[in-house]
Amino acid sequence: MDWLDEQRANFEALGNFSDRILDGLITTVQLTVISGLLGFVIAVVLGLMAGSRSLWLRGPARVLIEFFRGISLLVLLFWLLYVLPLFWIKYDITLPAPQDNTFATAAIALAINYGAYGAEAVRSALTSVPQGQWEATTALSMSWPHKMRRIIFPQAWALMIPSLTNLWVHLLKGSAIVSIVPEVNEFTFELDNLRRPTDIWFSHAFIGLATYFVLALILTLGMQALEARAKHKLGRGPSLWEILSPDPRPTPPDAASAAPPRTKAATTRPRAGKETQ
Question: What class, spelled out in words, does domain 2-131+139-243 have in CATH?
Answer without folding.
Answer: mainly alpha
